[in-house]
Amino acid sequence: MNDVSTRLLDSYRDFLAFVERRVGDRALAEDILQDAFVKSIERGEDVRDGEAAVAWFYRLLRNAVIDHHRRSGVRGRALEAFAKEMGEATEPAPELERVICSCIAQIAETLKPDYATAIRRVELENVPVNAFAAEAGITANNAAVRVFRAREALRKQVKAACSTCAEHGCVDCTCAS
Predict the structure, then answer these.
(1) Residue 15's pLDDT is what?
(2) Which of 97, 101, 113, 125 is deepest in the core (most CB within 10 A)?
(3) Can you give the CATH number for the domain in which 8 is found?
(4) Which residues of 86-105 are buried (b: 16+ CB within 10 A; e: fewer)?
(5) pLDDT at 38 over 60
(6) Which 8-state DSSP code applies to residue 119?
(7) Assessment of whether the complete model's pTM goes beyond 0.85
(8) How confident is the model at residue 99 (pLDDT cuts 50, 70, 90)?
């Protein structure tokens, strides 16, 4: 092990405290720190001096924390959009629900498996997003994003399979799917 690596490993606790203060979660801080160590191994050949390595690593950690917050902001906005969409959604009348094209369920099964499962559980079986997240072993935010993306993929597939239904709503199940 070279001097740079030894110096970085000796500062592990300081690095962890630095990141944890900025993200507020020890497990998340450990993940970010671990990723930064991997990056340091990939890029560490450029740093020769142990003291310079510590300063360089703090910059790497600062950038990793900034990137984390940016990604969290994107996820948060997607979740807010989904929550707004769900808040504005209304239940269709029972008679209209019977008329909805059964080909939608068939088209949903042509999506990638994660999306097909999300559509089936959340949209067709009315499982709450939080319950779906627990079943899938993912976070509620991840589940909300997955459902959003699955809807987008389904919308594209419906348009490709039956453009009339996609534009005007299903009125009859005579489309070829």
Answers:
(1) 92
(2) 101
(3) 1.10.1740.10
(4) eeeeeeeeeeeeeeebebbe
(5) yes
(6) I
(7) no
(8) very low
